[in-house]
Amino acid sequence: MSVVANGKPGSPPSGGRTRAEVMPLLRLSMPLIIAFAAATLIGVIDTVMIAPLGTVPLAAAGITTAFLIILISALWGLVTVVGVRIAQAHGAGDAGEVASNLRNGLALCAIGGAGAGLLMVLAFPFLDLLDQPPEVLAILLPYWLSMALWLVPVLTFFAFKALFDTVGRPWTGVAISYLGVVVNLPLNYGLIHVAGLGLVGAGIASVLSSSATLLVAWLFWRRSPDLLAYRVAVPIRWPRIRSLYREGLPICIGYAGEGAAYAFLGIMLGWFGAVELAANQVVNAIGGVFYVIPLGMASAVSIRIGMAIGGKERARLRPILAAALWIVTLWMLAITALYIFGGRAMSEALTDDGAVVDVAVGLFIVAALVQVADGVQSSTLGALRGMSDNRVPTAITLVSYWPLALPAAYLIGFPLGYGAIGVWAGYGAGIGLAAILLSVRFWRKTRSAPGR
Question: How far apart (Å, rounded) are the C-alpha atoms in residues 56 and 62?
Fold first, then answer.
């Protein structure tokens, strides 16, 4: 007997369609989350290894992280559009188009990583204008340059990973990502403490470990029988690269706007001094590990939505996002509790500076209050990206973070005198606004989806 839903025979109820999307999302998002965690674990390893050098080196890592957030956020737009193009081609059953998007996407990511690294080098002389602690800037340059080089292999690897995730090999990306962690750990300790290279040793270790993951990903792609269909001889063409770039540019601008706002948060904290900057680095290191949950879900939603679009199954769009929001809300509520009750223990695990710990504990509490909103806005943004809806979501994120979040952060932190906690509280308002506006955008875009 057929099921009747919304007056149409043969269509399962809305709740049933949502439940049907839960397990596919979990199966795809879990390896994505675990793989993203590998990248953030390298940052945690850096923080743990750098912390014994003192507050000033830890603060130097914090400044570099703030700038990298801007660049990686922007570059992530390129990875996103490559992944969406691959997912749509895979959903349509076109292996040749998958291969073309991969090869041209690899070229685009390599060019983008090199360009961002050059921009980072050129930007270093202007750090004095940001009024950062002079003792921090005095030791920063070698580490800064090594992390500029790191951008090339890490971005190119994620283009390969987009292929693995889409064609049903997400755990391959996990295994290769954790190879980087395994390589990074002894390299970090050996270069920082045994070889006595200090802060720059952490940067060199990051470059070497990321290059190792890229090499292994390339070897797997070249040799795996399962990927034979995606190794067809397709040329790298500038028109295709420019097409990917043009589609990705609004995403880059949106992610850069969000990342720059978050990075400017770190710059504001640097105006208070090295202690607040180091505390923010502690929160970034821990928060980065848990942020992979909404990031992984956003990527999974983007892939599933892209495949549904490619397969002309628009009736699945709303159920896919609804399932994602249920999952990510439960996850983020658990992280909220962890931040509130475990912030001090996590801070003390990364630094023995009591002043840094006290500031970090307050920042963890504020960060805890915006976790669910962050999960909602990330997942909804991923859904819109999978639909190749880029320009309006970009405008939403820019308006939410810049005209609202940063002025509010400055007002609460400085004139109102709430310090570092106030800066983070103002930023949280932008996350909440983005979550609301992006959700409204998605539901309006899918009103005409048949069978909803």
Answer: 10
| 452 falls within a domain | no
Q: Which domain holds residue 318?
A: 14-445
- For 314, the token pair is 């628009």
Q: For 123-142, how does the pLDDT look when each residue is reduced to its tens digit (9 = 90+)?
A: 998 888 777 778 888 888 99
Q: What is the pLDDT of residue 266?
A: 81
Q: Give the mean model confidence (pLDDT) for residues 236-258.
A: 87
- Tally of domains within the chain: 1
Q: What is the value of pTM for the model shown? A: 0.74
CB 409 within 8 A of CB 426: yes
The label of the residue with tokens 């193009």 reads 85
- CB within 8 Å of 386: residues ≥ 6 apart: 84, 87, 301, 302, 303, 304, 305, 306, 308, 309
User: φ and ψ at 4, to 5 degrees?
Assistant: -110, 125
Structural domain contains residue 6: no
Provide the pairing of β-strand 8-9 with 4-5. Answer: antiparallel
Q: 334 CB contacts (<8 Å, ≥6 apart)?
A: none
Residue 207: partners with Cβ closer than 8 Å, 6 or more residues away: 146, 149, 150, 153
Bridge partner residues of 4 (DSSP): 9
Lowest mean pLDDT among 92-101, 160-169, 213-222, 443-452: 443-452
Q: What is the dihedral of CA 89, 93, 99, 101, to 10 degrees?
A: 0
**Is 149 in a helix, a strand, or coil?**
helix
